[in-house]
Amino acid sequence: MSAPDPVPAIPPVCAADAERLAAERLSPQVWDFIAGGSGDESVQAANRAALDRMRLVPRVLSAVPREADTSGPLLRGTARMPVAVAPMAYQRLLHPDGELATARAARDAGVPFVIPMLSSQPLERVAASGAVVWLQLYWLRDRGRMLELVRRAEHAGCAAVVVTVDVPFMGRRRRDLRNGFTLPPTVFPVHLGAEAARATHIRRSGSSALAVHSAADFDPSTGWADLAWLRDSTELPLVVKGVLAPRDAALAVEHGADAVVVSNHGGRQFAGAPASITALRPVVEEVAGGCAVLFDSGVRDGMDVLRALACGADGVMYGRPVLWGLAADGEAGVRGVLDLLRAELREALALSGCADVPAARRLTTVGL
After folding, report:
1. Nearest alpha carbon to residue 212 among 222, 226, 199, 223
2. Which member of 95, 191, 255, 265 is catalytic?
3. d(Cα 322, Cα 327) in Å, to the nearest integer?
4. Which of 102, 158, 325, 335 is deepest in the core (most CB within 10 A)?
5. Which pLDDT belongs to residue 1?
6. What is the model's pLDDT at position 3?
7. Contact criterion met (CB below 8 Å) for 291 and 44
8. Rounded mean pLDDT of 353-358?
9. What is the model's pLDDT at position 25?
10. Residue 145 reports pLDDT greater than 90
11. Around Cβ 252, how many Cβ atoms within 10 Å?
């Protein structure tokens, strides 16, 4: 008797399916690195709880098309949906192509990809993918190296600089401490020096090598004058990521920001932070159109994008689900996750009575 034909694998139909596949494929230590948060990880839970609690009041008889238009302006460009792929470090931990695979998938999805400063692929190679790319920066003690990266980004055709302001040093991530987490020899921060690369490979019991190297390289004394210096150092649009307080958003605008990202770093930094979605509308109201406002932390599907738009955001940054897709199936996995997100957003717009992205900002929200 012949064996029955194998049952074909069902492709992911939501981000949670990609999450399960990624968890099966990654080592426990790498999974903990991308899944974990700071402290008791309650901020991650709060991000999801607040998003799930928020409801949208749909409009009816709005004569919307079956497929709503998800495209529109994003920063100084246009995108197929109001989404940018968030900066996430060391993507070659998840797939040999790392950031190259993610950039190619973002290119095909028509959305920007934010190259992480802690990339495992050089920014020039990533920019050569043809994607719209923005470069992320952390505040380094070595301002010369920061400026060098900005110049490289300008020369490579990057469309914006994203400076992350909520990491004076790395938050205490218990999973990484328990694992004594280090990078494998083939993965290292290509934009930093040899000393930083060596530090990421040194195992210390009860310590994270990534926290050690970031403590040595990152500058916790950074202030608003430093943001003004960065603004004066480049003509590229400047995005300030990691803002929760409305007053900080206003100060970012005063010091030259073209956009702010309302974010608690996906629950990976300050363990007492509020859910990012609860901070979004106050920031939007504070800046009052003085800059673009993006939302980050906890976004999992198209309904979350719609929630952010209804709170006044110009777009979102999409994080962990992209890593799940990368771990599950490389470039094809990321492309699949981004295609799902667009399909979900298109449906969410249409069923809420919105023909396009601008209409979403007129929806009524309840539950926050």
Report:
1. 199
2. 265
3. 9
4. 102
5. 46
6. 54
7. no
8. 96
9. 95
10. yes
11. 29
Q: What is the pLDDT of residues 196-251, one digit of tens each?
A: 878 888 888 888 988 888 888 999 999 999 999 999 999 999 999 999 999 999 99
CA distance 281 to 130: 34
Count of CB atoms within 10 A of residue 206's CB?
8
CB proximity list for 312: less than 8 A, separation 6 or greater: 280, 281, 284, 285, 293, 361
- The beta strand positions in the chain, using DSSP E, are 55-57, 72-74, 77-79, 83-85, 113-115, 133-137, 161-164, 238-243, 259-262, 292-295, 315-318, 364-366
Q: Which amino acid is at 59?
A: R
Task: Check if the beta carbon of residue 84 is closer than 8 Å to that of residue 74.
Answer: yes
CA contacts within 13 A on the Cβ side of 157: 11
CA distance 39 to 315: 28
Per the CB < 8 A criterion, the answer to whether 45 and 350 are in contact is no
Q: Residue 201 catalytic?
A: no
Strand partners, 137: 163
